[in-house]
Amino acid sequence: MRRLHRIGAVAAAAMLAVMIVPVSMAAGDDGAKWTFAVYLDADNNLEPYALMNLEWLKGVGSNEDVNFVVLMDTYGEDADLLKVEKGTTVPVGEEYDYPKEVNMADPDVLEEFCEIVCSDFPAEKYALILWDHGGGWRGLCWDDTTYDETGVDDCITMVELEDALAGAQADTGEVFDVIGFDLCLMAMPEVAYQVWGYADYVVFSEETVPGAGFPYDAIATHLVETPTMDGRALSSVIVQDYATYYSSTSGYVDWTISAFDMTYMGAMKDAVADLGEALHAGLQVYMNAIQRDLIQAQEYYYPYNVDLKGFAMNLQADPIIADEGIKMAAEAVQAAVEAGVSDFENGIHNYKSYGMAIYAPSTNDGMHSIKDTYIDVPFAVDTGWYDFVLDFSSFYGRNWGLGDW
User: Using 50, 70 and 90 to split pLDDT, how confident is the model at 6?
Assistant: First the structure.
């Protein structure tokens, strides 16, 4: 299972085999329909799954219509830039001094990878997959070798994620048709907000992602078979292939996957801002009702991540809440989720999921208290959701302390 942070590294389960050919033979063709790029951060305990995922891609391989390109970093081995051909991988990073050790938690590494993908493997459409541990708004892509060398448990933060994509876009002028988060707990407006303007569609999970991650063999097969598909179609392919894989694999019941149309990010931002403002204004009157409605919504590996539409549905249906401002704001949030989530599927334990979670710690005890770093999340601040969460999760937001609030 891909959890929030570094859980310790394991040695490589197998050595990565590559075939050495000149870079010019491996570069993308100008006539390609798609370049499908994977930022494969396996410099940690997920390395065996990375090797498996790469084998899945090799089972299909690039052709004249589709380029499969991977930046792969494993524990104890240098990172390498690879083009995936059928049955093998081809090193294509000599110009950029690969193979070399890199910190995959460094946003400059991600930015350079995006620039290489768009400049050296030109195509009509681009997909970027971010692969590693994930923690929703708390970050993504940890690097164990760097941790071992520096003692710093670094990751790509929300601000750094946008910085990397903005830098790459300034250099290339490209917008990714799809950005996929093959990482845990990333289906949140706090995350989607950071790729607004840099992707047309995002694919991510409200719940943890099993170690095997995306079913790359099925996804690659469908993309090669129909290279004329657009970003919406590819995002749906990823959702449906993921659902097919985990629903047919014994033992997997806690999973979600969804695609979000970034056209609706503005509506999502406004709706959450209005809901946060309305809830904050009514907190002293409806504190207990709000907490009950939150607890009854679907929660995930971390209980402070709750399904956004489910929470809004509970608020709207709550007979205790008479405030029309809260009711209208809750209805608008539901509409924003329904419009923006273009496809979603869930495992049987996540049946109350609708494709987008949000951060809402409900008590001030233990892991439920507000995290100090939430103040650094742009969506939380720009919408005012931070203000609601801060007071909601604090002691003085409780009914026994209202006299001091």
Answer: very low
pTM of the model: 0.91
Cα separation, 47 vs 72, in Å, equals 10
**78 backbone φψ class: left, alpha, beta (φ>0; ψ -120 to 50):** beta
Task: Give the chain's domain count.
Answer: 2
Compute CA distances 18 → 78, 82, 92, 258, whole Å. 13, 9, 11, 34
Looking at the structure, do residues 296 and 344 belong to the same domain, yes or no? yes
**Structure token pair of residue 137:** 């708004």
Does 379 or 361 have the greater pLDDT score? 379
Statement to judge: residues 246 and 343 lie in one domain: no
Tokens standing for residue 263: 């056209």
pLDDT tens-digit readout, 213-245:
999 999 999 999 999 999 999 999 999 999 999
What are the φ and ψ backbone dihedral angles of 332, each rounded to 5 degrees? -65, -35
Give the domain range for residue 217: 23-252
List % helix, strand, coil for the chain (3-state, nearest 5).
45, 20, 35
User: Which residues does residue 42 pair with via DSSP β-bridges, in sequence order?
Assistant: 74
Average pLDDT over residues 191-208: 98
Q: What's the pLDDT band for 91 if we cut at 50, 70, 90?
A: very high
Write down the pLDDT at residue 368: 63
Condensed to tens digits (0 to 9), the pLDDT of residues 239-266 reads 999 999 999 998 899 999 999 999 999 9
Looking at the fold, whether 54 and 169 belong to one and the same domain comes out as yes
Domain boundary among 252, 278, 309: 252
* Residue 247, Ramachandran bin (φ over 0: left; ψ between -120 and 50: alpha; else beta): alpha
Interatomic CA distance for residues 47 and 192, integer angstroms: 26
Enter the tokens of residue 120.
């050296």
310 assigned to some structural domain = yes
Domain boundary among 202, 217, 252: 252
The helix/strand count (H/E) of the chain reads as 14, 11
CA angle 74, 186, 222 (to 5 degrees): 70
In this predicted model, what pLDDT tens digit does every residue of 305-314 receive, in sequence order? 999 999 999 9
User: What is the C-alpha to C-alpha distance for residues 336 and 349, in angstroms, rounded to an integer?
Assistant: 24
d(CA 289, CA 315): 8
State the Cα–Cα distance between residues 235 and 198, nearest whole angstrom.
Answer: 15
